[in-house]
Write a structure and sequence with these properties.
This protein is α/β, with parallel strands linked by helices. The chain is built from 17 helices and 15 strands.
């Protein structure tokens, strides 16, 4: 069994207070649904649902009181050490603490990257390492909420045979781990031969039912939605509003780590686009409740081979066409028909956002250059860094503005990508920072000459 929390109320001021949340149509329809219903779209218009909170009840505590509450760090054996569940009242207030399943998600590092600042000509650049989480990606933030809700639903008698998802890798890892901790069956639909080995083995190891389908992610997504028409199969993709509730805490963590200051820009790679709307949701909630007084601008990044949002952005979001996503090194965002497109557009408009794209060569070299600055970037983060270079280079991000780049997954999930880069095996990518091992005889002279040659090469790192 995973770390099933024992969470008391967040301070004595909460005694007698009731915080509430519910599901409501993201397009504004009036119908409400319980957060414990197996419903993902509005029954009136078909729009995706969002979790809404009773903000008036939350305003019963001051902004300073909430800040102090979120600053508390409890013993690691309790779920309040989670970066999600120490914000329980803002996330899923109705869940019984006995049903919470936490694997220590959140509270990931926010690193100041001074060499990047020099390279980009920017004053302040941070990288939020969301991949430094239990299963190696930001998906843990949403999955702890979703699986905890399912555990409560099952305890209350709802028949759920399994929790199901379509995945390009990270979602399946998070789902299978949290379901394993909760002793709940999970089913994963993956596109055959389009997921890294490290990502494929995670759900296998966690005991999930893994189905490799001869289609792409979009095909898997269509099938899993059809499967979830049967309410005994609970849908775990980001079209489920509960996923967004957990993932919204990443923006809250960023602001908290910056001393409750708001960066000027947040740059985030995006595929199915749930992370974009989640990021915006958390920040908007902070402003509504007075914890911040302004919003950052958002830069959403796609790859050239899977860029339906970018193409729509060029038309001012007046036109949108799903595409057939092509093979890309950034496999986790190889999505041609993102289900959270509408949510993302609303968020980008509210945050004066931009959309940029990166080529395969750009993302691979950006990731490699960042690795030479001490990171170990996944290809999706490489795309975000390549986009940051473009935005700073043309002055859209000004030198005086602060920037946070969200790294969505750990580079260890993409070892094949790293090996291919340094061996020169990534097709059209010109590996500018390839660093293969040098084979030398086991003799001191040969070793010394090889070191002298390498250290005297005068190579300089650049993004």
């Amino acid at each position: 069994m995973g770390d099933v929390a024992r969470i008391s109320s967040q301070g004595s001021d909460d005694v007698g207070r009731r915080y509430d949340s519910w599901l409501q149509c993201s397009r504004g329809c009036r119908g409400r649904y319980s957060v414990f219903d197996s419903v993902y779209r509005c029954t009136e218009c078909g729009g995706l649902l969002d979790v809404q909170h009773d903000l008036e009840a939350l305003r019963g505590r001051s902004a300073e009181d909430w800040k102090a509450c979120f600053e508390k760090v409890s013993s690691p054996v309790h779920a309040t050490s989670s970066g999600v569940w120490n914000k329980k009242e803002w996330v899923l207030p109705q869940v019984d603490p006995a049903h919470i399943v936490s694997l220590g998600e959140g509270n990931t590092p926010l690193l100041r990257m001074r060499r990047m600042e020099e390279e980009f000509g920017l004053d302040r650049v941070w990288v939020k390492l969301s991949g430094n989480s239990h299963t190696g990606s930001f998906k843990d933030l949403g999955m702890t909420v979703l699986v905890s809700a399912v555990r409560q639903m099952m305890a209350e008698g709802k028949e759920i045979r399994a929790v199901v998802c379509a995945s390009t890798g990270d979602t399946s890892a998070a789902l299978s781990a949290y379901c394993a901790a909760a002793d709940i069956p999970s089913v994963v639909l993956l596109p055959k031969d389009k997921v890294s080995t490290a990502q494929l083995v995670q759900p296998l190891a966690n005991g999930a039912v893994v189905l490799a389908l001869d289609t792409d992610f979009d095909g898997c997504m269509r099938l899993v939605q059809e499967l979830a028409v049967d309410e005994s199969f609970y849908l775990a993709n980001s079209m489920n509003a509960l996923r967004i509730e957990g993932q919204k805490t990443v923006g809250m963590e960023i602001v908290q780590r910056l001393g409750w200051d708001v960066p000027d820009w947040i740059v985030i790679p995006a595929g199915n686009l749930g992370n974009v709307s989640a990021l915006g949701k958390g920040l908007l909630m902070m402003r509504e409740l007075g914890l911040i007084d302004r919003l950052p601008r958002l830069a959403c990044v796609q790859v050239e081979r899977a860029n339906p949002l970018y193409r729509s952005y060029l038309s001012g979001f007046e036109e949108y066409e799903p595409i057939k996503a092509e093979p890309t090194l950034a496999t986790a965002i190889r999505i041609g028909d993102p289900v959270s497109y509408e949510r993302a557009v609303v968020t980008l408009r509210r945050f004066d956002g931009v959309v940029e794209q990166a080529s395969e060569d750009e993302l691979a070299n950006a990731a490699a250059a960042a690795d030479r600055m001490g990171l170990y970037c996944c290809p999706q983060t490489g795309a975000a860094l390549a986009a940051l270079s473009k935005l700073a280079g043309r002055g859209e991000i000004k030198p005086s503005e602060s920037v946070v780049v969200i790294s969505t997954a750990h580079g260890l999930k993409f070892t094949d990508f790293k090996v291919g880069y340094h061996r020169g095996g990534l097709g059209d990518v010109e590996a500018r920072w390839a660093n293969p091992p040098t084979e030398v005889p086991a003799q001191l002279g040969a070793v010394s000459r090889a070191i002298d040659q390498a250290l005297g090469s005068g190579r300089q790192d650049s993004l």
